[in-house]
Amino acid sequence: MKELSSFDLFFLERELKQLIGGKIDNIYQYSKKHLIFQIFITGKGKVLLEWNNGFIFIKDKKEKNNVEMHLSKQLKKVLDQSRIQKIYQKNSERIIVIELLKKTKEKYETYYLVFELFKPFNLIFLSNDIIKIVAESVIYPKRKVILKEKYIFPESVNNFLEIKAKGLFEKTQESEMRTIATFMAIEMNLGGKFAEEILARALVDKNKKPSDITSNDAENIVLIKNELKSIKINACINDNNAFPFQFITFDQSENIKKQNFSEAIDAIILKEIIVNPYEGIIEKQKKVIEELKKEIELNKQIGDLIYTNYTLIKTELEKNKKKSKQISIDVE
User: CA-based angle 244:245:246, to the nearest 5?
Assistant: First the structure.
């Protein structure tokens, strides 16, 4: 699980809303795009919001070994004691927006934190729609995410969460994707696991061409989408993935239940942090082993050829030996 899909964020938004009304009282940084916001909520105490590249979620305990970096220093200056007013997903995009209110000497100021959870992953602090702080400056063909520029959200092409059956059917007929699963994953911004799950529940063959989708197929897909939007969160992890509910496309006997979706995501990230440092070494060793296997197989084939043609090879060697002459040269 490398990043969150738009449907993952739909379910995460529910959990993130518990932070509304809380005040940011500290920010910890661990790397360029890894922060933890400490939020005080009346009646609950301190709650932590973690942003780690393509992930955002609530967690119980702060990690150790944080480092003071430029981004966290900047954010602390402007966000300390600011109160969270709203938290929402922007359309059906992989973007989470947090609206904050802070009391200054003269008046209340409204600020925004925008978490872009698609590559290259970014965090943007806005004041009056102007970018004041950014984790990474990026220039796209249609917008600039750089300091002092007006922030423009990415163009939202397909809002699957709100799409109607007729609109979905029309989109499939226009698509040039090879399969409906790919269309759902990429053009509908669902990611692979949600695309296949929705199609399986709608009884639509995932390998079907988008142009072969019928209006009835589209109605079934939208029906399942709407049912899932109201499903209760029953989080679990399975096959290195975090799920907000149990998927029928995964072996449910292997599900490991978690208290909430945030905890499931945190468990997957922690597992990847532990495993990843060794992945490079393992991959190199696998390549070496494959090369050795190829070399062994080649030598075996050469040996088999020599054994099969031993008599012929021996005869030819003896002929060459007889033909060879020793030549001596005297040098005075």
Answer: 140
